[in-house]
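Minutes, project huddle
Topic: does the predicted pose make sense with 3,4-dihydroxybenzoic acid bound?
PN asked that the exact inputs be recorded in the minutes so nobody has to dig through chat later. Recorded below.
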Amino acid sequence: MTNDNSELAGLQQQAKTRQIIVEAITHQFAAEDEGLQRALQAARQAGLPEIQISPIQGKFLQLMAVACNAQKILEIGSLGGYSGIWLARALPTNGRFITLEINPKHAELVRNAFEQAGVSDRCTVRVGNALDLLPHLENEAPFDLIFIDADKPPYPQYLDWALRLSRPGSIIVADNCIRSGKGFEESQDEGMAGIVAYNKRIASDPRLISLDLAMDDDYTDGFAISVVRW
Ligand code: DHB
Ligand code: MG
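Predicted holo structure (tokens), as shared on screen:
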């Protein structure tokens, strides 16, 4: 019993330490400004699920965008525009950010969020099923960074398109690829199966160098990051 109690206390202390670390990194490196906070507030008011990326993930997207000298960024799945604002801000003023959103009401919210955050000059929201919209982007390719954060079953198809619409040195990032470890187990669930297949593909495709990085939800979820090899 005493052993169990001290083990539990140790785990609780570790969880607390992880929380303190996340808060300190967020405070020092990834503080939200008014534009990001307004986007979150508007999304909440509209009843969108609160499943946007974390500030640390937002800053990490910016870091990767700058690392690949991104002039053109594509996002699949806009949600409330929160990740879009982080990404658009990593672009030069003449850069282009295109985000694909299936829900027209959400798309309107996203346009508003971009306006409020002062990035609408470089942003376009396209409305429709991403798999229908992606073939029309070939004449705007290559994109320097592609961020996938939409419905999970088609993740492998989104990867096919990301490869088609990228160049050597482009960075392809997908959210929610760890899922408490379920991202690496066989699954009957259609969404999880999509993620599992995505992970397998990026780990073995010779055109990519890839890594999953736990960085969200108390280090139980995170990005799959791939660079298209030169
Ligand atoms: C879900 C989707 C996401 O993109 C996410 O970051 C978290 C949860 C979901 O569909 O449940
Ligand atoms: Mg997500």
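Observations noted during the meeting:
- The chain has a mean pLDDT of 97.
- The longest helix spans residues 2-29.
No decisions taken; revisit at the next huddle.
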